[in-house]
Structure formats: C-alpha cells, structure tokens
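Predict structure. Chain length: 69.
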Amino acid sequence: MPFISNISDIMKNKNMTYEELQFRSKVAPDTIARARDERIATCKLFTLEKLAKALDVDVYDLFKYVRDG
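Prediction complete.
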C-alpha cells in the first residue's frame, strides 16, 4: 500500500497515549489501531479530520504517500 501512517510518530512526539487519542477524537479503537499500523484501506474524511484535530495537526500530516515502482 502506498500510504504510510505517521500517526504513531505524531502521538510519540506529543506524548499522547492510544487511550488519550481515542478519547479526544471519539474515533473507534479498532479504527485508530488500523490507521496507526497501516492496516487501514479506506477511511472517511470526517474520521481523518477528527484524528487530525485531536492530534493538533493537518489532515495531510497523518499519512505519507509513496509511489509504487
């Protein structure tokens, strides 16, 4: 998959726990877990906005795109 999650790194830099992100974002725990370790294939923009707001970053900071090939 060409998308690499930056969520774990952002959380680490902000000293934010998984539980704190879940509480602040109101995003389901399994969605956060999948987004953190790149198992997520699709995600609603609204969900990305909630995660970004909880982490105090822009939506585009959550993932990095790497072209195949």
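Summary: The beta strands are 3-5, 63-65.
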